[in-house]
Specification:
heterodimer; A: 240 residues; alpha+beta; YaeB-like fold; five-stranded antiparallel beta sheet; four-stranded mixed beta sheet; 9 strands; B: 90 residues; mainly alpha
Amino acid sequence: MEGGRGELIPRITRRCLTDDLGLPADSVDLPIDDLANASDVIAAFRDRRAGMGSPGQEPIRSLLPDVVAFSLHVGRRRGATWHHREAGVIWLLAVGYHREGHVDDAYVYFERLKAAGRLLPDRDDMLAFVRSQGPTLARSLLSDVPRLVTTAREHPGVIQSGSIGGRIRVRIVCEADPAMLTVAIGQRLLPGEMPVPADWLVRVAAAFLPDTPPERLSVAFDLAGHELQHDEIAFCDFVA
Amino acid sequence: MAVRTKPVRIFESDHAPLRLLAELERRSPQEVFHAALAEYLESHRDELAAVFTETQRAIAAGDLDALTAQLAASAEAQADALMATLPESR
């Protein structure tokens, strides 16, 4: 599960994986399902947060107001989860044992991490997250796009909707006589609020128009006469 | 030309030249901006073409690794953009 069906994308910071859960640093690159097999806390995180699309119910008061993180209960252990709305990611930030009144209590630990600037994801975590999206998107460009094009050709004039790797919304239509294919690409990454990088927009267009010489690529201002949605950019070309 | 419009913020210093050009050419600022963007796109078509063509090649070859590597080209910039959205407390 890596997002794409409206749920949040689950990620775990490298610090949490290594320091709190005792996993190797390179486990940050493993799929969440593999990580869930290695830790019941991660399994609970995946099932109760990412899978449910829920940021949580019980905010961790000691981290407020700067960080609105939520407590994940797994036996005596507590996890701190945080919904990074812009990224569409639910992060598992830290895990500790709940020992009421103890200096090593999980909530005291979370507060110490925050004070030290080690609670939230760092740039390496962000980079690992961004890179983790590549293979899914690439597979989708190779397999989903041809299917969408075939469907669009079979139903001329009918707008087909889909997504690239669950992250980039696309609509496509093939008009007949003359045959023209137009693809409209949403410019906001799903889930979340971040813009689709400009080069990704061009790469998606290239996947839909694999035989179009770049000098013939045109920007379209509608989709077979229908208005584009407010965040879409569209490309078109005549097709054989 | 599309008749729907959206607000675009421009540098304050660009407002006067934009208005000047529009008045000289008896066009609206929107039309001047539209024409300028079209010219810019045309003059920067090489950058667009390079990305477009390398992607088409990887797709034609069914090269998953090449496509994955291409998609990672903007990873650093994306990571920086995401870092900028973190709460200030960090």
